[in-house]
Specification:
The chain is α+β, with helices and mostly antiparallel strands. It folds into 2 domains: about 1-55; about 75-145, no CATH class. The protein contains 6 helices and 4 strands. Strands 1-2-3-4 form a 4-stranded antiparallel beta sheet, covered by helices on one side. A hairpin with a 2-residue loop joins β3 (about 110) and β4. α1 (about 1-15) packs antiparallel against α3 (about 40-55) and α2 packs parallel to α3. The radius of gyration is 19 Å and the shape is elongated. The termini are far apart.
Length: about 140
């Protein structure tokens, strides 16, 4: 837990750092010098570096998918191919008609608005009022228009 406490303290300290201190911190962490970046951007970059250092990097397949979609430039919402079982604690977030839908995988199914459902499809149907594939609705498989 000390590791997370240290990370939290480091992230909080970013708010009081001057632009010069932020640039130096980014340089120390990543070797990158961005002399014309805004303090806000520097804080985001440093926070990313600190979190990655404390908690680890993204899995390679996610980095590969993000890279692929950033290069495609086709405006299509990225979807990740699911790898293996959905682990308890996994969060699925989707915006639908201006409302954010946040679902958590549990041992017994999926929790949404304090209720447990057997499948993501049940939740997708409840949210939309029509038949939807849950994995498609939450971006785990190719989107249907």
């Amino acid at each position: 837990m000390a590791r997370l406490d240290k990370l939290e303290a480091e992230l909080k300290s970013l708010a009081s750092m001057s632009p010069v201190q932020l640039r130096q911190s980014l340089l120390d962490l990543s070797g990158v010098n961005l002399p014309h970046a805004t303090p806000s951007l520097l804080r985001h970059l440093i926070a990313h570096q600190l979190q990655e250092k404390a908690l680890g990097k993204l899995p390679v397949y996610i980095e590969r998918e993000l890279d692929r979609f950033s290069r495609s430039g086709d405006g299509v919402t990225p979807t990740l191919q699911r790898r293996g079982p959905i682990l308890p604690g996994t969060r699925f977030v989707r915006e639908w008609n201006g409302t954010t839908i946040a679902v958590t995988a549990t041992e017994g199914g999926f929790e949404w608005e304090s209720e447990t459902y057997r499948s993501l499809s049940e939740i997708a149907r409840k949210v939309t009022g029509t038949h939807w594939s849950g994995p498609t609705f939450f971006g785990l498989s190719a989107k249907a228009a």
